[in-house]
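Quick review question:
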């Protein structure tokens, strides 16, 4: 994974994504959209959250929890985050301060997200999907992401 990220040739129909299986976080007016496949133990996801997404305004971010097999505790953390009373806050608390919520009972859509990721050929995290269907791999920098998202209304 590179810091600047790279594009994939495959195009995704953004409207077909099951956004109900993602954590919805709104920055500013939320007018622009972005989907991300992210693993709570992925170091590049941490960079993306801290160095890029914190600098992007007027965007709705849909985070699909996508625990990778190479991160043995990622599924447990994903479950705790998904089952939290406030999912966006739980995700932010983990990514910004490394604080997990208390355990609550629920059934997270992790299996569905992994299946969706395989269908879309997501092989690494973070993988970003833009509304026009472009996929970006890696911890894309804020300037590149702003340019790809288009003007902020």
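Suggested answer, residue by residue:
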């Amino acid at each position: 994974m590179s810091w600047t990220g790279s594009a994939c040739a495959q195009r995704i129909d953004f409207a077909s994504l099951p956004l109900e299986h993602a954590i919805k976080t709104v920055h500013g007016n939320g007018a622009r959209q972005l989907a991300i496949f992210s693993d709570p133990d992925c170091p590049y996801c941490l960079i993306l959250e801290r160095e890029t997404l914190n600098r992007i305004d007027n965007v709705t971010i849909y985070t699909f929890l996508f625990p990778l097999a190479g991160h043995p505790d990622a599924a447990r953390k994903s479950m705790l985050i998904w089952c939290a009373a406030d999912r966006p806050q739980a995700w932010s608390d983990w990514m910004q301060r490394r604080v997990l919520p208390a355990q609550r009972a629920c059934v997270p859509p992790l299996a569905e997200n992994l299946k969706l990721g395989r269908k879309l050929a997501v092989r690494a995290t973070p993988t970003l999907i833009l509304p026009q269907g472009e996929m970006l791999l890696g911890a894309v920098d804020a300037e590149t992401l702003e340019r790809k998202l288009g003007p902020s209304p």
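Why it works: Strands lie at 6-11, 23-27, 32-38, 59-65, 127-129, 134-137. The chain has a mean pLDDT of 93.
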